[in-house]
């Protein structure tokens, strides 16, 4: 058997580029993670300020989640939904309790969670709202990111995501993000849903105007449109609340979750809503071989328990405030704007000072991993278990890099 670990980072990067094509990764080869720290093949240590796009809110290889994974892996990993298993119901019960809804549907990737919400909204439209067959419209936002499946890229505003992947799925229209009046104007009798992120993550950590989500919730309620809230990235404490919509007292009509639902251990996504909506989905309408499998369910329970036991949403709220305070003290001509909530923070770099990528590369040399988004924005989203002194160090490094 080949010794897979006896390779240098450079050799592994070369091999990666030989066998696959779909990412332009930063030149770091991670081989171990613990809490907020990751280590490369050569043993160099980095503070992870991306946290796998907020999937690792609980920190890398959280012992409690690892234990749940190991324990379940030795018992039963997959039943398929052809049969019941003795873990899923408890996971979904816990998730319903955590979110405040009565029903859940488990899937795997975030994009599948979004697809699930879209299918529920469409079927609800035809069977409850009585929209004429195949006329259902779903409104989305300019600058959205909801995943990479064919239907989801059909309504992306990123040319590269959809160009040459057509024909695209019809039935979507896009309105400016953060503009409640534009939503109102776009709704027709055939509109069944409005899909949005509470903060646009991949779009550049775009925070909508105060009260936007509350306005959206009211407009949707008044017009009989389902609000599909994609909290895949913003959920589970990332923005300083359990869900970002909590700032506006809404979790939408269908809440879409993924990423940190597994503490970075396993692909798990889910949607939650109330029975009056979920009940449109009948046995056989939708599913996935791995969705709700016992391994995922055990991991999901442990990941949710860690969020609760370690008060991670509250921690994110306080530490986010602290860190943004430190950032506010950095006087740099390069900074256009610092925005975000909790520990979801974007630092936008003025175009005349170049792109954010070289700054991320400089931070990497200093032992901090983060990734630019939308060319001009450095995104800082560390695991929520991070300590004040670590954030202080990140702020010091940022100050020097931005000087
Ligand atoms: C990451 C993300 C997705 C897609 O999740 P995948 O697991 O990559 O399919 C969808 N919506 C938002 C807001 C995301 O951040």
List unreliable stretches of 5+ residues.
none
The counted number of beta strands is 15
Shape: globular
Heteromolecules bound: pyridoxal-5'-phosphate
Helix count, DSSP H or I runs of 4 or more residues: 14
At the first level of CATH, the class of the largest domain is Alpha Beta
Identify the CATH homologous superfamily of the largest domain.
Answer: Type I PLP-dependent aspartate aminotransferase-like (Major domain)
Structural class: alpha/beta
How much helix, percentage-wise, in residues? 25-40%
Order of helices and strands: HEEEHHHEHEHHEHEHEEEHHHEEHEEEH
Number of structural domains: 2
> Which second-level CATH architecture of the largest domain applies?
3-Layer(aba) Sandwich
Rg computed from alpha carbons, rounded to a whole number of angstroms: 21 Å
Question: If you average the pLDDT, what whole number results?
Answer: 97
CATH overall fold name of the largest domain = Aspartate Aminotransferase, domain 2
Strand order of the largest sheet: 4-10-9-8-7-5-6
């Amino acid at each position: 058997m080949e010794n897979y670990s006896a390779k240098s980072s450079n050799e592994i990067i070369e091999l990666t580029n030989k066998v696959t094509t779909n990412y332009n990764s930063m030149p770091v080869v991670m081989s171990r993670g613990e809490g907020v720290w990751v280590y490369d093949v050569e043993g160099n240590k980095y503070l992870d300020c991306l946290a796998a796009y907020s999937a690792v809110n609980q920190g890398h290889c959280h012992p409690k989640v690892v234990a749940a994974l190991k324990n379940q892996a030795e018992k039963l990993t997959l039943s398929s939904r052809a049969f019941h298993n003795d873990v899923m119901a408890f996971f979904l019960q816990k998730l319903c309790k955590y979110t405040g809804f009565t029903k859940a549907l488990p899937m795997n990737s975030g994009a599948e969670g979004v697809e699930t919400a879209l299918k529920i909204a469409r079927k609800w439209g035809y069977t409850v709202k009585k929209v004429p067959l195949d006329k259902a419209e779903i409104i989305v936002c300019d600058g959205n990111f909801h995943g990479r499946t064919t239907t989801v890229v059909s309504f992306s505003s990123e040319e590269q995501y959809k160009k040459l992947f057509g024909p695209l799925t019809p039935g979507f229209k896009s309105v400016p993000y953060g503009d409640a009046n534009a939503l109102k104007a776009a709704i027709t009798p055939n509109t069944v849903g409005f899909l949005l992120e509470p903060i646009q993550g991949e779009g550049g950590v775009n925070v909508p105007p105060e009260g936007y989500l509350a306005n959206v919730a009211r407009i949707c309620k008044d017009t009989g449109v389902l609000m599909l809230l994609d909290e895949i990235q913003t959920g589970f404490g990332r923005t300083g609340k359990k869900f970002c919509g909590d700032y506006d007292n809404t979790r939408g009509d269908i809440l879409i979750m993924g990423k940190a639902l597994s503490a970075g251990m396993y692909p798990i996504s889910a949607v939650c809503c109330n029975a009056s909506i979920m009940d449109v989905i009948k046995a056989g309408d939708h599913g996935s071989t791995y969705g709700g499998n016992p391994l995922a369910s055990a991991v999901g329970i442990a990941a949710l328990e860690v969020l609760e036991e370690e008060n991670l949403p509250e921690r994110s709220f306080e530490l986010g405030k602290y860190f943004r305070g430190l950032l506010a003290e950095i006087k740099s001509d390069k900074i256009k704007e610092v925005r975000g909530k909790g520990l979801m923070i974007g630092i936008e770099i003025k175009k005349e000072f170049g792109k954010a990528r070289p700054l991320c590369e400089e931070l990497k040399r200093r032992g901090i991993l983060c990734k630019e988004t939308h060319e001009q924005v450095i995104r800082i989203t560390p695991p929520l278990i991070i300590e004040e002194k670590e954030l202080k160090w990140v702020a010091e490094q940022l100050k020097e890099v931005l000087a």
